[in-house]
Amino acid sequence: MSKADILSELPKLDARERAEIFAKLCELEDSTPTAAERAILDQELEDFKNDPNPGSPGHEVEARLRSGLKA
């Protein structure tokens, strides 16, 4: 599986699966988020739990932007 394949599959995973992957990456790199990074991640997770659909997917935003440029 290529890096591009992996990156294209990540958005399809649920939050638990992404957290597992993040934890594994941290193990491999022997690093963990700093306290400030952890606070940001925790806040983002809380925001997502409160509103799991906070906006439009990137491809929709891009399409809207591109359609406005075709004037």
Q: What does this molecule look like?
A:
The chain is an all-alpha fold. The protein has one domain (3-69). 70% of the residues lie in helices and 0% in strands. The protein has 4 helices and no strands. The chain is extended, with a radius of gyration of 16 Å. It starts with a helix and ends with a helix.
Topology diagram in text:
Blueprint: H1 3-9, H2 15-29, H3 35-50, H4 58-69
Query: Which consecutive residue ranges, at least 5 long each, have pLDDT under 50?
Result: none
Distance N to C terminus: 40 Å
Strand content: under 5%
Integer-rounded radius of gyration: 16 Å
By secondary-structure content and strand pairing, the structural class works out as mainly alpha
> How many strands?
0
Number of helices, where a helix is a run of at least 4 consecutive DSSP H or I residues: 4
